[in-house]
Amino acid sequence: MIKSYLGSKDFFKPKRNFRFKKYIPLTIVILLAIFFIVQIALPIINKKTKTDYQLLKKNSGKVLGAATNLPLIDNILVLPIINNKNRPLIYAKSVILIDEQTFYPVYEKNSYEVLPIASLTKIMTAIVALEHYKLTDEMVVSGKAVSTIGSDIQLKPGEKLTFESLLQALLINSANDAAVTLAENYGSEEQFVQLMNNKAKLIGLNNTRFEDTVGLSPNNKSTVFDLAVLMSYAAKNPKILEIIKTRESSITSIDGKFTHQLKNSNRLIQPDEKYFIPEVIGGKTGFTFEAGHCLATITNKDGHILISVVLSTDENTITASAAETNKLLRWAFENVTWNS
C-alpha cells in the first residue's frame, strides 16, 4: 500500500491546505514594528555613545585620582617614533624608558618583574611627607634615627631641623637618618609606612610594597613600570622637582649648632662626572646588596619628558646605574623623535 502511494502522482502534488497568503499581513506588521523600533532606538544609542566617549576622554590619564599623565584620547596618536630598531644592550635586570606624555615604552626589559628597589623607596617617603607636613615644621632627631645604618648625614640625637631641611637631605644625599626622622615625627615608622602603602594603592601601583621608609628592607619591592609612574607623580610636585635637580647644598639645625653638607649622588646631573647629561632634570639613586644599583631619572629632551628606571645592574660598581642610564638616554636622543 505504501509502495502504491509513493508511486502515485498525488505524492508529488503540493498540499493545497497550506496557504501562505494568510501570513503576509502578519509579516508586514512585524517588519513595520521592527523599523519603527530601530528609528526610535538609534538616537538614544548614539547619544549614550557620545556621552561615554566624552567621559572616557575626560577620565583618561587618571589612575584612581592620581595625575600620572597617561595619554588623553586626543593625544594618543602623538607617539614617539623609534627610528632605529636596534636597541642598546642594557645589562641591568630590569629597565624602562617611557615617553611621559603618552606613557609609551620607548625601551623596556622585564618591566613588570617585581624586584627590591633600595633607596628609590625615598621617592614615596618624600611624597607622603609633603602631604602631611609644612616646610617650616620643626622636627627632632631620635637616637634610633641616628643609629640607622647606610647612607646618612650624621645627624645628632636631639638635633632640631625643619621639615624642608630634612627633605633636602632625604632626596639629595639619600640620608637614612633623615628618612627615619621624618617618619618618627609623624608617630612611628610603622604608621608612616602604612601611609606609603596606602598612597601606592591610590596611585595605582599594584606591584609595589614598602616595609620601611629608607629602602634597607629587601621586601621594599616594585617594578620599573610602577616606579616610572611614581616618578611621574613625584615630578608634579614643584618642591620635589626643585630638590632632585640640586647638585650641592647645605642644611643647618634650627639652633645653628650643626651644619650638614649635601651632594647629590646622581652622577647624571654632576658636570664633573663622566656620565653627566645636561638634559637630565634630576632623579633618585639607590643601592643595597639585594637590590643592586638602581636609578630613576627624569629628562627633558627638546620639550619631551622621558622617564627612565634601572633596577639591579649587572656590575657592582658605584657608577653602574649611571653608566646604564647614560647609554639608554644617549641612544634615545639619537633614535627617538616626535611628530609634534
From TrEMBL:
Gene3D superfamilies: DD-peptidase/beta-lactamase superfamily. Residues 86-313 form the Peptidase S11 D-alanyl-D-alanine carboxypeptidase A N-terminal domain. The chain crosses the membrane at residues 23-45. InterPro entries: Beta-lactam/transpept-like, Peptidase_S11, Peptidase_S11_N. One of its GO terms (biological process) is proteolysis. The active site is at S119 (acyl-ester intermediate), K122 (proton acceptor), S174. GO terms for molecular function: serine-type D-Ala-D-Ala carboxypeptidase activity. Keywords: Cell shape, Cell wall biogenesis/degradation, Hydrolase, Membrane, Peptidoglycan synthesis, Signal, Transmembrane, Transmembrane helix. The keyword DNA damage does not apply. Substrate binds at K284. Belongs to the peptidase S11 family. PANTHER family: D-ALANYL-D-ALANINE CARBOXYPEPTIDASE, TRAFFICKING PROTEIN PARTICLE COMPLEX SUBUNIT 12. This is Peptidase S11 D-alanyl-D-alanine carboxypeptidase A N-terminal domain-containing protein.
